[in-house]
Amino acid sequence: MGIQLDPAGSMAFAASVPSWPLFPDTLSSLAELRSKGYKLHILSNVDRDLLEGTIRNSGIAVDGYVTAEDTRSYKPAPGHWEAFMRRSGAKRDEILHVAQSIFHDILPTQSLGIASAWVNRYDGPLPSDAHPSYIVDGLKSLAQVLA
Fold first, then answer.
1. 63 neighbors 39 (Cβ within 8 angstroms)
2. Are 68 and 46 in contact (CB under 8 A)?
3. Rounded distance, CA 110 to CA 64, Å?
4. How confident is the model at residue 81, as a pLDDT?
């Protein structure tokens, strides 16, 4: 974005992550999916303290999470999914990875043989090499599709 931050500004920006607002449909849609028996795990490219703060501040109920700090790698590297499957015992054909980023999430899950749902909130074009199992415009739409 061309914005230069000094070290103090960089630290302040990172520290603000747990207070960022959720999309309006997030909590209700995740609660609906949970009520239907879906397990919810977060695979995130942040450190544990930032994700734990986000979970605490937002009230999201999750069954587990894997962070970049845990895997010592960043998506699109496969470490997050490998750690998730190891920890949860889930098999590839039991997982639906839900995400907005084609590069960080949809393409890697595709190469790992894991189903995906692309949350296309901004009505972006689908790259020709991406083949998500579902395309939705938000989590509310996903909950409806999976109902």
1. yes
2. yes
3. 22
4. 98
Long-range contacts from 94-99, C-beta under 8 angstroms, 24+ separation: 96/133, 96/134, 96/146, 97/43, 98/139, 98/142
Q: Residue 130 corresponds to which tokens in the numbers above?
A: 């991406």
Domain ranges of the chain: 23-142
Query: Which residues is 68 bridged to in the sheet?
Result: none
Q: Could you tell me which residues are beta bridge partners of residue 41?
A: 64
- Residues paired with 42 in a beta bridge: 65
Residues 140/117, Cβ–Cβ less than 8 Å: no
Chain-centroid distance, C-alpha 142: 14
* Per-residue pLDDT at 147: 86
The list of the chain residues with pLDDT below 70 reads none
Other residues' Cβ atoms within 10 Å of the Cβ of residue 80:
27
Residues in the chain: 147
**Homologous superfamily of domain range 23-142:** HAD superfamily/HAD-like (3.40.50.1000)
Q: What is the pLDDT of residue 1?
A: 81
